[in-house]
Specification:
With about 300 residues, the protein is α/β, with parallel strands linked by helices. About 45% of the residues lie in helices and about 10% in strands.
């Protein structure tokens, strides 16, 4: 595996030599065995073409794009403002890769303030990528409007299994949109399951993995109205297994609806609601069985 990393590094140096551009120390440091870490502040416009050629030739399974900035919600002089053109070009390169590659499994963006234009570029890539299993957009000041831009492509995508939009600014406005997203993924799997059962055959692959099974929406601004909007969809869903809603604004009414949901839905085995407005004390880590989850709600 270390040899593969050396090969990737050597290839990048050869690409830069061929293009007659200097190597980026930031890119060199970010090249790993099966992933590449891109730090926005360390990439200039002159690095875009070498990056595009490198991604096309190296079968990275994970792409991580992040900023050196921390505490984005407090820091308004974001990397996005100073590196706007670089960010746009990097996203275009990555989403273009999605149209051709069957290797990228995980795509992570974190600590970068995202705009609607950025989300539109990401959305175009999500709509066509066939290998991506994990999409994580973490602490990027993502809003409900941004979610609405991504939602149609998230519905269209059939490879995603994990969505992590934690540490953002999502509100109750995403409730119905999220419900519709889960409903479409559920219908798709229900149809495949029905087809196999009518033929009396067993699927070669786990049907649950051709759609979303895990959601992380922790550290947002979701409230009781969000719960009211999404629960009717979750009651009919039999594929989603894990939902993280900790550190939101859910209160007593929302908790009661979630407890009722667990009584009706036999698939959800993990529902984390710690540190919401409706909780009165810190709830310790426990296993993800429903009985324990109900106790967490009641506390």
């Amino acid at each position: 595996m270390r040899q593969r990393q050396k090969t990737h590094t050597y290839l990048y140096k050869q690409i830069c030599k061929h293009l007659n551009v200097p190597c980026s120390s930031g890119l060199l440091n970010g090249i790993q065995e099966t992933e590449i870490v891109l730090i926005l502040e360390q990439i200039g416009l002159q690095d875009i073409e070498p990056l595009q050629l490198l991604l096309a030739q190296c079968k990275f399974k994970s792409i991580i794009l992040k900023s050196m900035q921390k505490n984005l919600k407090l820091n308004k002089s974001m990397a996005h403002d100073n590196y706007k053109n670089e960010l746009l070009e990097i996203l275009r390169v990555i989403t273009k890769l999605f149209t051709k590659s069957l290797d990228v499994i995980t795509f992570v963006i974190r600590d970068i303030r995202m705009s609607s234009e950025h989300m539109q570029i990401i959305s175009q890539g999500i709509a066509v990528v066939q290998s991506l299993k994990e999409l994580r957009i973490i602490q990027c000041l993502m809003t409900s409007n941004h979610f609405s831009i991504l939602q149609p492509s998230l519905i269209q995508n059939s490879s995603l299994q994990v969505i992590d939009f934690s540490h953002n600014y999502l509100t109750h406005q995403i409730g119905v949109m999220l419900g519709q997203l889960l409903q479409e993924h559920s219908k798709r799997r229900d149809s495949v399951d029905y087809l196999y059962r009518t033929k009396g055959e067993c699927p070669e692959e786990d049907i649950s993995k051709i759609g979303i099974g895990e959601l992380d929406l922790s550290y947002n601004k979701l409230n009781d109205q969000f719960v009211k909007d999404v629960v009717p969809y979750l009651e009919r869903d039999r594929w989603i297994k894990s939902i993280n809603l900790k550190y939101n604004a859910i209160q007593k009414e929302g908790f009661e609806l979630l407890i009722q949901l667990l009584d009706k839905n036999t698939t959800i085995i993990g529902l984390d609601t710690r540190r919401n407005l409706g909780t009165t004390q810190i709830i310790p880590e426990g296993d993800s069985q429903k009985t324990n989850q109900k106790q967490k709600h009641q506390e």
